Amino acid sequence: MIFPIVFAALYASHFTLLRLPYYWDEAGYYIPAAWDFFRTGSLIPQTTLTNAHPPLPSIYLALWWKISGFLPEVTREAVLMAASLGLLGVWRLAMRLVGVGAVAFWTVVLTGLYPIWFAQSTLANADIFAAACTLWGLVYALPERGRRPWVAAVWFAAAALCKETAIAVPLTLALVDLVEAWQKTLFSSAWRKSRTTEIHPYGAEAPLTSTAVSARLKSSPFKTGLLPAAVKEAALFVGCVVPLCCWYAWHYAKTGFLFGNPEFLRYNAQANLDLVRIAAALVHRVLHLTAHMNMFVPVGTMVSAWLLLEPRPDAEGNERAGIGRSAAWRIAAMLSANAVLFSVLGGALLTRYLLPMYPLVLLVAVTTFYRRVPLWHLIAVISAAAFVAGLFVNPPYGFAPEDNLSYAHVVRLHLAGIAQLKKQFPGSTVLTAWPMSDELTKPELGYLKEPFAVYRLEDFSEAQIARAAQEPGQYSTALVFSTKAEPERPLPWLKSGWMEEKYFGLHHDLEPEAIARQLGGTLVWKKEDQGEWVGLIRFSRAMDAKVAAGPGVWGGAVERVAGE
Questions:
Q1: How far apart are CA 156 and CA 166, in angstroms?
Q2: 323 Rama sector, left if φ>0, alpha if ψ -120 to 50, beta otherwise
Q3: Which of 186, 217, 268, 293 qualifies as a FRET site for 116, CA 20 to 30 Å off?
């Protein structure tokens, strides 16, 4: 009964976003991959470079398109279903670990309002699908009582078939299971020895009779066979890798690439193996988990409560329920493992890679409020208000627009720029950069019906504009835009430095006026919104043309190559 309520709340809060065209990575890979499967039945993308990402999101989206049609709103609603399933998993996890409805309620509310989760709830990136499956796997893997490792393993395998990096969670749990069982087995062996021998006053040991041993063993707090049981559970979790390995083997057989095209592999793995870069990325990841997008409000309050307040009794004088020691250690291990993993893997420090970890942070925070803070509901409300503010107010440092509702402003800016391009310069060859280059050439992304020819740049930095200036005959107009979200008034100690430029791809786009000057054009239209901008530039150059045989006044048809 909770799922319809969650879905209705998400649908209402995301209603104005449902018809937006596709954005950034979903437009660059996930939608083209699903679109290719929908049209051709091929799990290997054809209209974009294959990255060897597992195919479950493509299959899921294609099924929805088959039922309801290939429309952005159908895609957004399908993603909302997955996000709602993930929030339902958050509810069940909180109830199984803590057992208090109010704790589960606030954990779900805060997760749903957290800007990164909120924004990803309608974006067709693989991370939201993997997060939903991972959270349901944790429902059956984390509780100390009533664990169902088989069910958890199925959910974890599904998560890995959504996003390959999701395998980090079951592998971490498998390792923790083995370490915990090994420790208990050692302790249990020492305890068994104390129950089967008798120590005399001068330190000598003598074996007890079988009757005495049997009597002492009946009081054992541990069951025998701990290690074999842990090995069995760990094997189930490690076995979640098998479906993913099968996908990679099939992908290699079809393409000759194991982990996607070489450039993708280099950018996301091979180029990141630098200790300074890994250390800097780890600092970013810790901040992503504890402070980014106003997460510092519940986390800071939680730490303060730990340091300053003792646990409170309930109405009957008993200690309030909390997360058990075993589950708490597993949560800490998963948070640490994911922070380290995504400090090594991933060329860009995208926060959505940590999507299934944010509900765990919030569950620990809300449980701490419940156990230690007298007016803990008020703290939860303040945290929710901070998250709502984070949806609309950008932080004073660089961030990805998909971390909050800035991405919707970017999409609408791009729509406005493309509308001006179609109105003023139809049929022109357009200088632009990704993702605008895909938006202008792929009608299935929802920005236009007739594609444009484009001249592609990597970005609008000074070096790239200088390159374009050397080839003026390759384009007749330019549609330029901000490729990096930069704060209008950054705090001095949060300004990006050389490390971000060297290791994390930071660059600075030239302003549209400067681009127009360097390329010898005229800025004819510009629009800004929350620090983002888009501009349209025309060039007054001599027309280059060629005559093709065919009817006409001059005995031929004039075909424009470049220029006005």
A1: 8
A2: beta
A3: 268
The four Cα atoms 230, 158, 83, 269 give a dihedral, to 10 degrees, of: 90
CB 170 within 8 A of CB 151: no
Domains assigned to the chain = 2-178+229-393 (no CATH), 403-545 (3.40.50)
**According to the model, what pLDDT value does residue 264 have?**
72
Residue 201 burial by CB count (10 A; 0-12/13-18/19+): exposed, middle or buried?
A: exposed
Distance, in Å, from the CA atom of 76 to the CA atom of 61, rounded to the nearest integer, reads 10
Alpha carbon separation from 341 to 37, 286, 335 (Å, rounded) = 30, 12, 10
Show Cβ contacts of residue 235 under 8 Å, excluding neighbours closer than 6 positions: 174
| Confidence band, pLDDT 50/70/90 cuts, at residue 551 | very low
* pTM (2 d.p.): 0.88
For residues 304 and 425, what is the distance between their CA atoms, to the nearest angstrom?
59
Phi, psi of 503 (to 5 degrees): -105, -25
- Angle between helix axes 358-372 and 72-97 (nearest 10 degrees) is 40
Q: CB neighbours (10 Å) of residue 69?
A: 9
Which SS3 state, helix, strand or coil, does residue 33 take? helix
At 416, list the tokens.
Answer: 């406005």
Long-range contacts of 99-103 (CB under 8 A, 24+ apart): 99/321, 100/320, 100/321, 100/370, 102/370, 102/377, 103/363, 103/366, 103/367, 103/370
Q: Which helix H or strand E contains 215, and what residues bound it?
A: helix 210-217
Dihedral (Cα; 60, 62, 68, 74), 10-degree rounding:
70
Q: Per-residue pLDDT tens for 303-336?
A: 999 999 999 998 888 889 999 999 999 999 999 9
Q: Which residues pair with 544 in a beta bridge?
A: 562
Task: Give the C-alpha separation, 17 to 73, whole Å.
Answer: 8
- Decide: residue 118, CB within 10 A, 0-12 exposed, 13-18 middle, 19+ buried: buried
Q: How far apart are the first and last CA of the chain?
A: 61
φ and ψ at residue 484, rounded to 5 degrees: -130, 135
Q: What amino acid occupies position 49? A: L
- 400-412 pLDDT, tens per residue? 999 999 999 999 9
Work out the number of other CB atoms within 10 angstroms of the CB of residue 89: 24
